[in-house]
Write a structure and sequence with these properties.
Blueprint: H1 12-16, E1 34-35, H2 41-48, H3 57-69, E2 78-83, E3 86-95, E4 100-103, E5 107-108, H4 114-132, E6 136-141, H5 147-156, E7 160-170, E8 184-188, H6 194-204, H7 220-229, E9 238-243, E10 259-265, E11 271-279, H8 288-300, E12 306-312, H9 316-324, E13 328-339
Parallel strand pairs: 4-6, 11-12
Antiparallel strand pairs: 1-2, 2-3, 3-4, 3-5, 6-13, 7-12, 7-13, 8-9, 9-10, 10-11
């Protein structure tokens, strides 16, 4: 059970916040959600991390408070709900890139109408993020373990749109690629290729079946910013590919067929992740994706024994491609996503 300190008097910041009063939509005595005042962050984090193992919770709270005080966490990324001046609910978001935010599920304690309080937290954060000009909010949940959180998101206005299947494969055994499939020549990322990467990345999203809700939303700089912020960016593993054809004076870069391959270290010690594989419309239907997978496995082989990836289950051609290449599922995630602006 979570313990709470004795009730502190309302702070000036809390009293002055325009949302800090109850309204007709709130359960009795429950105030509207507000950005968490600095002096209440510890309380809010106690609630937010209440499902974490007791042995890990103090370290998680201490780390978050350290990030707050060093400026790595913005104070308004944690929101809380109060009842009679006691923190009873918390929710947190963080930016994935310049246009997209990731939302953690709300946690609520000591409330008879828990579902209403949780939904109110979700709605308040979505409204705030839209006001900030963000374009999309997303969340990932375990479809079996997080059914309460899924209901909270849906009631609060963050719908479930699809399921991601997580797959993995050994990097040690090369896949079989038909001999007739053209080989690919690769160009590593360099800062002077930003515009080229951006243009081609956007073209790979044309008619994409992988989270089409995000099509046109994120450019290369957004993807780059997200990976750099997560500490996962390694330029030599971000590559543009073009098919090699036979013939005199053939220049693979003079044609429109392109493949984008992005790989990064995983949270697992034994695995790397294929974070993105995309083909321009002209490159599709020629077996180039299978060739690119073989090259990705070779590229990461000396760094990890496994390669993981995620695929939208609505993207049946990609699901078939990965299964045929020897990838096997090991988990799933429900995707909640909303475009804001």
């Amino acid at each position: 059970m979570t313990s709470f300190p004795s009730d502190p008097p309302p702070s000036d910041a809390l009293a002055a916040h325009p949302s800090a009063s109850a309204d007709s939509t709130s359960p009795r005595g429950v105030q509207r959600p507000i950005p968490c005042p600095l002096e209440r962050w510890s309380e809010g984090l106690q609630i937010l991390f209440r499902r974490a193992p007791q042995s890990l919770r103090p370290a998680m709270i201490a780390e978050a408070l350290k990030d707050l005080h060093t400026g790595q966490l913005a104070p308004d990324t944690l929101w809380i709900t109060l009842r009679h001046d006691r923190t009873i609910g918390a929710i947190r978001w963080f930016p994935l890139d310049h246009h997209t935010a990731f939302l953690h599920p709300p946690e609520v304690v000591h409330a008879r109408r828990r579902a209403a309080v949780a939904a109110q937290l979700v709605r308040a954060v979505l409204k705030d993020l839209k006001h900030r000009g963000l374009r999309a909010v997303q969340a990932l949940l375990d479809p079996e373990q997080d059914q309460v959180a899924a209901a909270d998101f849906i009631r609060g206005g963050l719908p479930a749109v699809t399921t991601l299947e997580l797959l993995e494969r050994s990097t040690l055994i090369p896949p079989i690629v038909p001999q007739r499939t053209p080989r690919l020549v690769w160009r590593e990322y360099q800062p002077d290729l930003d515009q080229v990467f951006d243009r081609i990345l956007r073209r790979t999203a044309i008619d994409s079946l992988d989270l089409p809700e995000l099509n046109g939303l994120r450019g290369f700089q957004d993807v780059l910013a997200g990976q750099v912020a997560a500490g996962r960016f390694l330029a030599s593993f971000w590559r543009l590919g073009a098919p090699i054809e036979e013939g005199p004076n053939f220049d693979p870069w003079a044609r429109p067929e392109r493949v984008v391959l992005l790989c990064a270290p995983s949270n697992r010690y034994d695995a790397w992740e294929l974070t993105y594989l995309g083909l321009t419309p002209e490159a599709r239907g020629r077996g180039l994706a299978r060739r690119a997978l073989a090259d990705a496995l070779e590229l990461t082989r000396e760094h990890a024994s496994r390669l993981t990836l995620a695929v939208d289950l609505r993207n049946l051609p990609a699901v078939r491609l990965y299964r045929a290449a020897g990838f096997v599922p090991f988990d799933r995630r429900a995707v909640h996503l909303l475009r804001l602006n």
